Amino acid sequence: MAKLTSRSEDYSKWYNELVVKADLAENSGVRGCMVIKPYGYAIWEKMRDELDRMFKETGHQNAYFPIFIPKSYFEAEEKNAEGFAKECAVVTHYRLKNDPENPGKLIVDPEAKLEEELIVRPTSEAIIWSTYKNWIQSYRDLPILINQWANVVRWEMRTRLFLRTAEFLWQEGHTAHATKQEAVEETEKMLEVYADFAERFMAVPVIKGIKTPSERFAGAEETYCIEAMMQDGKALQAGTSHFLGQNFAEAFDVKFTNKEGKMEHAWATSWGVSTRLMGALIMAHSDDHGLVLPPTLAPIQVVIVPIFKGEEQLNQINEVAFELQGKLKAKGISVKYDNDDQNKPGWKFAEYELKGVPVRIAMGARDLENKTVEIARRDNLTKEVRPLENIENYIEELLKTIQNDIYNKALSFRAENITEVNSYEEFKKVLEEKGGFISAHWDGTAEEEEQIKNETKATIRCIPLDAKAEEGVSLISGRPSNRRAIFAKAY
Amino acid sequence: MAKLTSRSEDYSKWYNELVVKADLAENSGVRGCMVIKPYGYAIWEKMRDELDRMFKETGHQNAYFPIFIPKSYFEAEEKNAEGFAKECAVVTHYRLKNDPENPGKLIVDPEAKLEEELIVRPTSEAIIWSTYKNWIQSYRDLPILINQWANVVRWEMRTRLFLRTAEFLWQEGHTAHATKQEAVEETEKMLEVYADFAERFMAVPVIKGIKTPSERFAGAEETYCIEAMMQDGKALQAGTSHFLGQNFAEAFDVKFTNKEGKMEHAWATSWGVSTRLMGALIMAHSDDHGLVLPPTLAPIQVVIVPIFKGEEQLNQINEVAFELQGKLKAKGISVKYDNDDQNKPGWKFAEYELKGVPVRIAMGARDLENKTVEIARRDNLTKEVRPLENIENYIEELLKTIQNDIYNKALSFRAENITEVNSYEEFKKVLEEKGGFISAHWDGTAEEEEQIKNETKATIRCIPLDAKAEEGVSLISGRPSNRRAIFAKAY
């Protein structure tokens, strides 16, 4: 197995190689579309199941809406169309036929042209709100709290596995409410769910904030986001929650009779996270040996590797290993015993390091004699020899420790790489020499935001929800500002 | 709530009304595409989770492949293209733009025409085998046992909710093997999984069999199926498992070095079930009052309805009901306590009958005095009054009884509606007067099969795997036959 390119050598190349070598995903023969391989999909499934549980706990139900959206639906909400309907996959025909001039070849049947083109959903507000129109008559029909797990397509020109692909998997929540306040509360509640998920399960600390108007979701009144720092100091938007006001209700004429008997447009939210989270998970923790997975999302949490010469030794180790495997499984720990005799222990060690298995237990003949095992942690690459007796309890605790340590490591890294600056000169110097997130005053205008972006490639990631009031002057215009925004280069 | 059309009056109308009134699904604004509503989706989720568990137990892993398939991939496997690539959604462009002549309108940008058209997958053999080409070099890479949960699109002209829709949800297993025998065994194993799921979870008895050549999957060497009988006597194909031979390996040049060091094409299977199973579930058990759901797949297994006058009585009932709810939940039973005071008990009774909740517990003031509850079974509409004490144990057993009873009722119905006939006259008479499945001899030719189909609309559903050897003569040609096939009109 050829070594990975190191992060310091070429971070971008390291990421691309890691995704492929760790069997997470690969590019397909279809431009911009990826194949998510079983190991990658198993991690995504764990994310999905956990998020799904959290959505249900907060009162949401799943449903499924059509993948196609008639072109005219996009015309109803101008901003949304401007943001999404332009670069998309357009279905214009519904039949192929044999090419009369080239036997064995297929051509589009010109007689099977659709009257109205269909767009493969880039996001589902339009199709869902056109449906809600029939579901909502009275305040008694509200709230509607629906989530959808689905694939979506956006015609991206430059794609990267998980981070930006033409087709990706995601969930999109679409809720309808009787009051503005309730919709805003829902938007904020789901941001909390995302932040909680990112921190407790992905072990990725996030900054909760709101987007500037120019970075808002197309059609939203306010976009909330969680922003995570990758190991190269760049930001990755890990989830967004949008307060959509009455924009979609107006576009699709969704009115209800309120408690006072008056007709009113419904209030909307939408919120989503996608397979992009896989990119965040990989880039936040992994190292030059391969993936580092937090135990809560690792498809295999513990691997047991026997070190043996000959069948007799293997049989002896098998007995002990199977028993330990059983004890760990009884604790709900996912454990693999790899006693395949085709590959050497060293090969297996490297393989499970590459795959990010949090704990490796090695068992040799001497361990058997001494009633010990060797335990290796993937996150910090430390090893220790411990007594076999009750080792399952130790492992159970160790997995929690590793989860916390991975989170804390990412948190320290972030703390070291957020810099407060008070002048544009300092801003540019820090961005170039140190990178990371920069906390700075901004005058609130799109002009200053745009100028900074054009000159430095750094964008305003968010205005943190917990930003404290602080008088200052903005970087370029020198206008007064009362709190800091977070700037960074971003994925 | 208006009553359902009865099954005897108009079976087809009854089904369509039931699907909509029970909040399972509805037609969308997109031709042929349905919206699966939360209650319907919750049933599908339970099916999916159970099947997923069964697939993983039999060694399969999930993965995800692109939704788009380049047109040329279909040209590689001629039969598959013939069967699937013709009536499909064709993506020809990747951009819309503002219509310069009609402000607010969008048009397809003629400059954004794809070099090669993309087909929205109707099934994924082509894209998956084009990927397997890179994954398979040696017999050590085999078997590959992969499943995908996905949406697929087939341009159906006449659609019906769940039974036949342009877009539907399904799973598709795609496996690759080193030997023919192993692939055949896999095909048969997955048929067993489907049959087991249908019978134990859906409570729908199925006939396992093989399809005739003319009913085979496009590109398969052998198609195995499970066929279920609906209450109108018609057949519904509930799942298929295909032995694909080396057809796709040849089409996509997937070769491996076998144990003897020789290059060989891999052997393939594919197998799938879809949201069509929802249609089977509904039509197999439901009655004129609404859905009848087997407890294993019911999103709500037990509903508790209080019968009260005034708040004081409600408070007293609440106390007992919440305690009972807790005890049932502790047993893993999904239970809803509906103490909403907007709707009358009679309305609630009808509503939960419509939704197919297997067990309804009613609690009134007199029940409180007598320490009893009234228990109503949805499947046979019987009621009984029982002591409240330890009622949770009784309910737990009752749910199992109901599951068995629903299955046995369907089994008896099927037994009564399979008729053995020995002449074409008898065949036509039984089909017209009684309907159901007809067991008859067939000469094995496509001609006779076709003639019967054209003259009676009955098709050969399958040749049952357990058909016993029996000498006979075929219906029309009078040629000798050594076992019976199952004929029926079908969905």
TrEMBL record, chains A, B:
Enzyme class, spelled out: ligase
**Record function comment:** Catalyzes the attachment of proline to tRNA(Pro) in a two-step reaction: proline is first activated by ATP to form Pro-AMP and then transferred to the acceptor end of tRNA(Pro).
State the UniProt keywords alphabetically: Aminoacyl-tRNA synthetase, ATP-binding, Cytoplasm, Ligase, Nucleotide-binding, Protein biosynthesis
The record's annotation in InterPro entries points to: aa-tRNA-synt_IIb, aa-tRNA-synth_II, aa-tRNA-synth_II/BPL/LPL, Anticodon-bd, Anticodon-bd_dom_sf, Pro-tRNA-ligase_IIa_arc-type, Pro-tRNA_ligase_II_C, Pro-tRNA_synth_II
For this entry, the protein name equals Proline--tRNA ligase
Cite a single GO MF annotation: ATP binding
Subunit field text: Homodimer.
Q: Which residues form a coiled coil?
A: none
Entry EC number(s): 6.1.1.15
Q: What is known of its domains?
A: Consists of three domains: the N-terminal catalytic domain, the anticodon-binding domain and the C-terminal extension.
Q: Which residues form the signal peptide?
A: none
Keyword Hydrolase listed = no
Q: Name one GO biological process term.
A: prolyl-tRNA aminoacylation
**One Pfam family from the record:** HGTP_anticodon
Q: One GO cellular component from the entry?
A: cytoplasm
Occurrences of domain Aminoacyl-transfer RNA synthetases class-II family profile (ranges): 26-294
Q: Which cellular compartments is it found in?
A: Cytoplasm
Q: Which family does it belong to?
A: Belongs to the class-II aminoacyl-tRNA synthetase family. ProS type 3 subfamily.
| Primary residence | cytoplasm
Catalytic activity, as annotated: tRNA(Pro) + L-proline + ATP = L-prolyl-tRNA(Pro) + AMP + diphosphate
